[in-house]
Design a protein that fits this description.
By secondary structure, the protein is α/β, with parallel strands linked by helices. The chain is built from five helices and eight strands. The protein has a single domain, classed as Nucleoside Triphosphate Pyrophosphohydrolase.
Length: about 180
């Protein structure tokens, strides 16, 4: 089960881990597979970066409902959750912000429908693209190496961690989807 704490010391490879006790935000995100077992990454054209589909959990919404809603809004696909992968905590010391993400593995269901992007997602130029798991990890590594924004480095590190966990599980157990 994925259970990871990402801190400034992990992201920036220096110092001792420091943790924040008050939770600022809950999110749901993860790996969406198509019929070819390719992974969906959200390309942020205006930043030249990639991330996994997902977002915040709304009030009175379960983590599963939030994940399937975010996938539909960002990719246009309905999805079936295959498994709960675990959680990741992002302890952003500079912003005194603790973000807990619940992570899922899912597969597309049916044909692609319309997107329902937020104004922010539209302004970032959100578009999903499909990659093999190895290509997806490489795209995340490339995104991390070209990013200099504090908060986004946590997002990218978190999403790379989820992809690497999925790959390790695939390599160990065979196809877990």
């Amino acid at each position: 089960m994925l259970d990871k704490k990402i801190t400034d010391s992990f992201v920036f490879r220096q110092g001792e881990p420091q943790y924040i006790s008050r939770i600022s935000r809950y999110g749901a995100r993860g790996i969406l597979l198509n019929a070819k077992k390719q992974v969906a990454l959200m390309y942020m054209r205006n930043k030249g970066l990639y991330k996994l589909p997902g977002g915040g959990i709304d009030e009175n919404e379960t983590k599963e409902e939030a994940f399937t809603r975010e996938v539909k809004e960002e990719t246009g696909y309905h999805c079936h959750i295959i498994s709960y992968l675990g959680s990741i905590e992002e302890h952003k010391l500079e912003k005194n912000f603790l973000h807990i993400s619940y992570c899922f593995l899912a597969e597309t269901v049916g044909k692609k429908g319309s997107l329902h992007l937020t104004k922010k997602e539209k302004s970032l130029g959100f578009k999903h693209q499909w990659f093999s798991i190895d290509e997806a990890i490489k795209m995340m590594e490339k995104s991390i190496s070209s990013c200099n924004q504090y908060g986004m480095l946590f997002t990218l590190t978190r999403d790379k961690t989820i992809l690497e966990y999925y790959k390790e599980e695939m390599d160990r157990d065979g196809d877990i989807a």
